[in-house]
Please model this.
Amino acid sequence: MAYVAQRIVFSILSLFVLLFITFLLSHVVAGDPAIVAAGPNAGAAKIALLREQMGLDKPLLTQFAIYCGQILQGDLGTSWFTRQPIASDVLRELPPSLELVFIAMLINLAVSLPLGLLTARYAGSRFDDLVRLGVMAGAGLPVFWIAIILQQIVAGRWQLLPTAGRLGFANREFSGATGFYLFDSLAAGNMNVFLDTLAHLVLPAFALSLLFTAVGVRITRTAMIGEFRKDYVTLARAKGASEPRIMFRHVFANGATPALTVFGMQFGWMLGATVLVEEIFGRPGIGRYAVKAVTQSDIHAVVAVVFVVGVVFLLANLLVDIALYVLSPRKQQRA
Amino acid sequence: MRFKSGLIPLCAVLLASVAVPTMALAAPTGTLVIAENETPENLDPANATNSTVDELLLGAYDPLVQFSAGATEVTPRLAKSWEISPDGLTYTFKLRDDVLFHDGSKLTAEDVKFTLDRLKAAAANVLNDMGPYASAEVVDPTTVKLHLSAPFGPFLSALSRIYVVNKALVEPHMGDDHARQWLSVNEAGSGPYMITAYNPTESVTLKAFDKYWGGWDGNHVAEVVFRYITEPSTQLSLLKSGEVHIAPDITVEDKIALKTEPGFVVDVGAAATPLFFDFNTASKGPTGNKKFREMLSKTFDRQLHLDQVLMGFGALPDGPLPANWMGHEAGTEQAFDLEAAKKMVEENGWKGTTLTVRYLPAILEEKAAVEQLQSNLAEIGITLNAEGMTWPAQAATLQKVETTADINMIYSFPVFPDPHAILNATFNGALTGAKGGYNWAQYSNPDVDALLNEAASSSDSAKRAELYKKAQKLIGEDYVVITVSNPGSVVALSDKVEGYKYNVAHHQTFNYMDIGLKP
Model:
């Protein structure tokens, strides 16, 4: 229990460090948001007034302290440009991005785990070489390029999947309570929208997952190779256990721990990387919102996005850590 | 409150159900889908200076007077007629009495006054260009007087972005932010289309308002959808697959290819958004020297830029104003003459000078222009350092003369087609970057200021034209800018689109209210 509490406290602390760095960098890089907000031919007086209204005339540390105070009260502030509470903006943009990341993560796990396990089992074989080659290629391809190629060929030439957007034209008026269309459509019993949503997710999710899958396969392979060399595998073989039983029941169960830790981190990284695929596939989401916020110097919105992505990242890691802790027989005994 | 749960769609459904039998003439049909690369920041008419906001409001709201697409003069809209007092200080507008807001209530002079009072209290960006506007006064339900503190020639033109809001709907949400939060996601207009869904990072949907006072004669669409697609190749794919009808942001190369492809039309609108190299005229460095600026102003080949960067889509600039505008003066800027520039460099010992230009690398045209200038200057022994920035960062450097680079790139985006909108913003000493304006040359010449101010306060267009001509001559003699280009507004369309026309008063918007789809 103490371990879990310690992890949580540590997570919260790292979140505030992250906030401070983002806040600082935004202010250094952004130029003057008041000029942007003031519009053309505004005049110095109006810009000065806006700067005061936006709190930009206060020292940076004071601004940060005020901002942290707001966040502790659960208030992410109001966007200078959308004029909406940033929390409601983010809540609208998060579901489409999370949906994309979930599917990309599923693809990642579905490919990484079995390929990692098999290449570890048959390390050094032709098969291993072939997969390694594929992985190198996958890791080396720029995401935006592969996304455009997929779009041009699979959606454009073959017309197998939609080119862009979140839903097809016929379903454009669909909306649901949670914003997670996969969930909302199922809840509404609307299979048509569910399949449409899924079809629109395949290409972007695949493009997003590619780089992560390449890393995932390597990590899994490395973790599993170590396990295959351990004494208990030799013992199991000597006792006549079948090879599939050794692979899945023993090696996989024991070797998955380091790999899972990485997958936990990948979830957060993916959420931070959605922007490229969102722009190319014309999808709404947190990445696009963040880009707009950055180009307008909407500092509070930028910091809020970093904060939320940070929270998701830490949560994913925390969950993996806790799950591993709970599942680990050794630690259970000690507790 | 969002549209999905809001009042407006409910009204729309109710109105649609009662209005259908009364429709005598052609009803709008079909859905027009427009791709747009930049997402809107909000729906507030206070921000109508921003084109991504303006394009949504243009169909949803009505101003008193408006520039129709293709027109260079305002025509009546909410105002049937108007009178200007002899001293130019009072504008009396007679309003139509048949205008309904989207909630079915009647538009009156009270709404006009409320709109302007709200904009003023909120220090709205859209009032930045309204000159000496002072106050509004309701005379009777169909008469409103607008008072100015000084005469302002382009006042009527400037009113074309003052979108009248429904007082009864907006007033309860005024709060302490002048209803900015509410109007940012809700619409309260009387225009031909109602905004029925607002998902700013994805799409915005507008539906025809069947009780629109202008009626629905001719071919119109029942629904307009803006889809926010950043990637040019995605816009192209969607245009080709028929999922969008208008794609403004595909690459120049693809636009050229589409010109000869059946099924598509490429329209080149005569835009008035000149791109400038602004020389820091107030600098203590080399650009503070008029002679040095004279040399610089000979070092850019506009024709080459038009041919190779704009691929011919645009007009060769001749000074800061488009050549067909009232008050244009020809031949005020230096022609490209690298030999003459080289001679000046040698005679004055300027070889080895290092200059800095700041620009937005995200805009390919700016990047290409910087590269040309860099290479031309290198040929005559001057080093040009290029610093790419974001807009907010670049704008911030202009707040002081000392932090202003030797050269800055900037487009002029006039909010109405009048010389004032380009010349005043770019050259008036009252609007230098240091004073919070877009005169990024930090240029201040009292004679020019006097001419620009006199022209702005006159409503006699012949007199104004003369004053602007004189001002351009003086500006030319001070070598303040290089007008790099006058890019055309190039839009790729499906050939199913009927009635598209570029609107110079609303750059980067679409006249979807005039557009119909061929069957």
